[in-house]
């Protein structure tokens, strides 16, 4: 049994029922709540007690329930700054010995694992709060390419909006964007607006993930306890997030071990909505262009992928002088001059493959190939659990 403790804003009426609905079919999880005073959301913090001692007092009560993780289920760190959340979590863990996290950490982690850099932002807050959030998120590699807000300050009023208004808020945040960068996800930043009831509808309409604060906080708290965090039917984050989180760790480790410029993994997993025409995870060296959200190529039709299908072994290419040749776009658009591809099989089918890209031609060492083999084996084990 996993017990999650959550610190809740006192005027919040959305997150508790939403969280309990999400875990309704999970008898292995219980969630326990306590509250701190929060009545209004403004940059002056009037009507809210976000100080560390108030958080500690709430955490001590949750610790009495022997919870496995304590989550501050509020997004104040999004405008107060991530350093504020770090201080709160460090103080809670030092005081109670229990791992701690926050809604803001969960949102940022979800963006990291889904490879999101261009983000649309939907909130009930006022424009100055949204501007502060935008500035803070920019420090973490996230560019707001669109945003919509209700311009409200009274926290209790946030939860009074109907599902249709929440769906419209999310769609409007994406459609408000301008310029060359399309939103790769939309974040609903507030735990007193329940986006969990419209996640599937909005994601089907927009074709991108909705990172709902309530769902994200539950997901990340479960991940921190080592509990299966997948909840089918509750949006892309709770559906794909557990696998993407582990895939991100694998491509990051592969790039670090090989010293290459970019690593990716593509996965065909229909039950999760994953297809190989988009990367499930990517890791890049600084200044290297992302390929993760480019769906322009039919991956199964590529000469290199057909080679993997036929041979089912690691393809090592120090140069591209000999066949099988990669697509011209990989060379011309993304500047790749050498690569290693590692196939992953399940039930006799080529269901995934890793790519390690180098901008310069290079010899791939036995250690590089061993790192690729490790990644392939780890992904094989992960996919067996799906």
UniProtKB/TrEMBL annotation:
Residue ranges that the Swiss-Prot or TrEMBL entry lists as coiled coil: none
Among Pfam families, the record links this protein to: Amdase, GAF
> InterPro entries of this UniProt entry?
GAF, GAF-like_dom_sf, Iso_Racemase_Enz_sf, MaiA/AMDase
Question: Domain GAF: where?
Answer: 245-374
- PANTHER family (alphabetical): BLR3294 PROTEIN
Protein name stated in the entry = Asp/Glu racemase
Species whose genome carries this gene = Mycolicibacterium sediminis
- Classification lineage: Bacteria, Bacillati, Actinomycetota, Actinomycetes, Mycobacteriales
